[in-house]
Queue: 2 jobs
Job 1
Amino acid sequence: MNYPYNDDAMIYDAKRHQYVLTERYVLETLGVNLSLTLDTTGDENPSTLGQRILRRVSDFFYRYIYAHGCNKDFIEYLLAKYPPCRDIIKDCLVDEMYYQLRNGDFFNCADVDKQFDRWVSPTTRMRLQEELPNGICLLYQGRYNVRNIDYRSDY
């Protein structure tokens, strides 16, 4: 299998270098039809609101990870190409979607520093602190010494 790849659960946004959940997968896993659940009042293009919200959740999930370390390029590479990361991303994005639907949007909070830890669910935070099979932790705040990798050459 070549990574990253698209399936019924997630698509890989090559421009942003991020996986994004599909609306169909949110419906299957959470039982939530985003087109019926989200308030489209005043939205210029309500048919795309669900996908825009899913991209936003993905964007903040990835930002949360990158904010914790010094090796953004290496972590980005792992998230795109290392097979164990794909399932972690999928599980965490589902958790994040559920967290946002239940608790509201913390992303627009006025006190960003105070609310930073609330951007992600406690479940996601714990999952990202677990060590991967290769010994890497996605929320490691230090710097990994890594070999030269041709970042973004095929993802």
Job 2
Amino acid sequence: MSATEENLVFSSAAFRASKTGKPLIQQLGQKHLDILDGKPVQPGPNGYGIIYYEVDGEEWELYPVMPEWCEERNQTSLFTQDGGTEK
């Protein structure tokens, strides 16, 4: 994972488009992919990412999360530059 790994999120579109993701689409299923889309990727063992998530009340983890399945999301501030007031 990269130096900006705290900003990485899973992208179901990137997963579907990648050579490493395509073979796993049927195993994961659409429901899991829908839930995983946009989830933050945490650093995991061996330099790969990991995602902990829940489907129908059951806890799951996706590991390894390959870098090509992710996209970088910049955090945006909840406050405007003028102290939070909109005019």
